[in-house]
Amino acid sequence: MEFLSGQTTKEALELKELLAPERVGTEVKVNGFVHSIRAMGEVSFVVLRKREGLLQCVFEEGASALPVKSLRESQTVELFGLLEKDERAPHGIEVRVKGGEILTTPYAPLPLPIGKWKLNTSLEAKLDNRSIALRNVRERAKFRIQEGIVRGFREYLTSQQFTEIHTPKIGAKGAEGGSNIFKLDYFHRPAVLAQSPQFYKQMMVGVFDRVFETAPVFRAEKHNTKRHLNEYTSLDFEMGFIDSYVDIMEMETGFLQYTMKLLAAEYADELRILNVTLPNTEKIPMVRFDRAKELVSEKYDRRIRNPYDLEPEEEHLIGRYFKEECDADFVFVTHYPSKKRPFYAMDDPADERFTLSFDLLFGGLEVTTGGQRIHDYQMLREKIVRRGMSEEGMDMYLDTFKYGMPKHGGLGIGLERMTMKIVGEENVRETTLFPRDLSRLEP
Amino acid sequence: MEFLSGQTTKEALELKELLAPERVGTEVKVNGFVHSIRAMGEVSFVVLRKREGLLQCVFEEGASALPVKSLRESQTVELFGLLEKDERAPHGIEVRVKGGEILTTPYAPLPLPIGKWKLNTSLEAKLDNRSIALRNVRERAKFRIQEGIVRGFREYLTSQQFTEIHTPKIGAKGAEGGSNIFKLDYFHRPAVLAQSPQFYKQMMVGVFDRVFETAPVFRAEKHNTKRHLNEYTSLDFEMGFIDSYVDIMEMETGFLQYTMKLLAAEYADELRILNVTLPNTEKIPMVRFDRAKELVSEKYDRRIRNPYDLEPEEEHLIGRYFKEECDADFVFVTHYPSKKRPFYAMDDPADERFTLSFDLLFGGLEVTTGGQRIHDYQMLREKIVRRGMSEEGMDMYLDTFKYGMPKHGGLGIGLERMTMKIVGEENVRETTLFPRDLSRLEP
């Protein structure tokens, strides 16, 4: 009988192993994609692309049993040779190749010059050749940063005793109603794709008190802008036994602080590759919606057209105001007007035209929407009636409140937008692996 | 200007804080759901349900400013009093209540006796009242174990230099073709929901070498069994530069070993609540598909009806065979017939009727499907032709191979099935928060 008992050691070494000081001067075996080839007369430099970064391999004339002339970009190869220090090489090491073998060979030259440091190609070309464009070192680094953000979210919330949940994306009715819903046929019954896990995460507050989910959400919005996607990854949490909506903003501040530390510690290579300076999260200003409008109106001499709405231009100016006034990259805007928030938002008892809710702006762009929710069954039903909505399809959501719920609130963060702002991109498609928008359904 | 600088300390203490030895004998403030009330004459025991577990609060006649008679199940309350040791109480501590307040009150008595240790209710009743049923301590514990499995998957793969990816769930064409696909209208274009992230994770092997995703998948299968769902959470990984399909099984073995240790260390309370003995993952047997059929046919005197298919009953017997013969809970069955695997599966060069693929059985149930994939462009195209399939809609997938790919493979794990087998349930709906099946689209 044959058994497996875990992973076995591989002969081919990874970058981390090669960087151990005792390896220098020894013979090593390595593998990777041929990322670039530079022939300099008697010496050729072949850079391998590995999962952790680039590795320089040097072919000196006559020194390698595998001729460098047999190599081509985008082959995968296994090489062996002496590991030596070289300050000019990436990571300060290189392999003086003695031989090796070609593992796989492409059938056509690459459609994009991915071996270049910066891929100066249009966004359309990058998206049309997505699996190739992402092989560029800078392109792929953005998605390592994205991974770090999600890790930060999960690790921080886990340390704060949140439980991770998985809620269904196909349902009988949209959580927030409205028309921006994708419809599908579910075994001859009408169904919709989830716009958010809102109802489910609230229902789960009664079970685990604190819950989070990192999952796709679907919005059939006909917006064709640089900041909208029709499918995106939402980082959601919901927490019970809060004192007020401020608890939720404090939790998000804690997440942001933890995540920036995590990125600085474990994604330093990628931050360097992208030349990113991490935003300031030590102290995040908090301002009321109406006050924020006044502030930018005064400072930038801009007339307030609608006191109950925030235009993208105003969001941008609020970001600018707090950057200029207190060097803040983030700002919490609180007390959004009730009519701009969903029915489940808790109105401010001091002035019911406003809610105990907030958006987080990052460089003038909304990256989070959150707030306290209504936990009282009768208050929730009355608000549904006042909105002219129907309780139809909401029975199980409403029952949760009928049988008792604590004061609670939560938020949702758009992962791709957050990534875009951190890495300094202008279009959210740049930080989405395979974006879905009005015109793009492939790849 | 007001600023937020992270989380502030709360007066109400969590269970972990209460368990610090120096707290005993001090006055504490606590909050939670009223889980159960037991009146014993002059003394009443009120058990609070908190996110980390249960907490006993004792009301002695005349000792509390808040009368115990004002309390009801499923209220949320904040209480204060002396923290004392008591061996008979959960976690060995209790609060001798001096007063407190009722935070929220339900509008109706609970529809299920969730305060009982075991919720002896039908599965249908549990699903119809999902947000209430899950408040039972045993019911919710299953989903803490589920969280631990996902954490184990991510943490182990992250330590093995995998990168987490987020791939779209709406697409132009199903990755594996076939009829079991949910269809939807995407801005007047036909679209489908992803059956698996297969194409995308393969495309990303060329970028990050090792990738994983934990996300929902959608199968419009008309199976109405205890082990099928129409939407489930798939734990997927894909890895490049493999020597053979065995590398993938070794990686999964490593994940299982890591995860069992994580569960034992950090989910001990839940394992105890559910009375779970973790499966043996030290050595996992590996057997060929055809040999496995022979073994159970010989031992259990069962005729092989179809040498190219594995019936559920045979899977069950394979599980039983390896439990009896080598006390194994898991078994890798390798070399599935080519005609039972998707076109991208790598055929065995030694016998093309079989593939370099595997299933992992856990107690006789398939919980993983994986294997080596075809990495050669021409081989892939030829197989598509041989299958009578069309390349339509697969251009970008195929281009990935045209431009060069390493030898690679991967797998997909059904999270709800894995959870079900670990906690010893018989129906996968028991370990799905909000299951979707042929008849259930709500809650």
Describe this structure in words.
2 copies of one chain form a homodimer. With 443 residues, chain A is an alpha+beta fold. In chain A, 29% of the residues lie in helices and 28% in strands. Chain A has 12 helices and 19 strands. Chain A has helices spanning 15-18, 123-128, 130-133, 137-159, 198-208, 246-266, 268-274, 289-299, 312-326, 377-386, 395-402, 415-423; strands at 2-4, 27-40, 43-50, 53-60, 76-85, 93-104, 163-164, 170-171, 183-186, 189-193, 210-218, 231-240, 284-288, 330-334, 347-348, 351-355, 357-362, 365-372, 408-414. In chain A, the strands form 4 sheets. In chain A, strands 7-11-12-19-18-17-14-13 form an 8-stranded mixed beta sheet, with helices on both faces. In chain A, strands 2-3-4-6-5 form a 5-stranded mixed barrel. In chain A, α4 crosses α6 (246-266), α4 (137-159) crosses α7 (268-274) and α10 runs antiparallel to α11. The longest helix of chain A is centred in the middle third of the chain and has 23 residues, at 137-159. The first copy, chain A, is elongated. In chain A, 49% of the residues are buried. The model of chain A has no long low-confidence stretch (mean pLDDT 96).
Could you list some keywords that capture this structure?
homodimer; 443 residues; alpha+beta; five-stranded mixed beta barrel; 19 strands; 29% helix; 28% strand; elongated
Shape label of chain A = elongated
What quaternary form is this? homodimer
Find the biggest chain interface: A-B, 125 and 125 residues
Percentage of residues in helical conformation of chain A = 25-40%
What is the terminal-to-terminal distance of chain A?
44 Å
* Sheet having the most strands of chain A: 8 strands, mixed
Strand order within the widest beta sheet of chain A: 7-11-12-19-18-17-14-13
Structural class of chain A: alpha+beta
Model regions low in confidence, pLDDT < 50 over at least 5 residues of chain A: none
Rg over C-alpha atoms of chain A, rounded to the nearest angstrom: 26 Å
The number of helical elements of chain A comes to 12
Mean pLDDT score of chain A, rounded? 96
Proportion in β-strands of chain A: 25-35%
Number of strands of chain A: 19
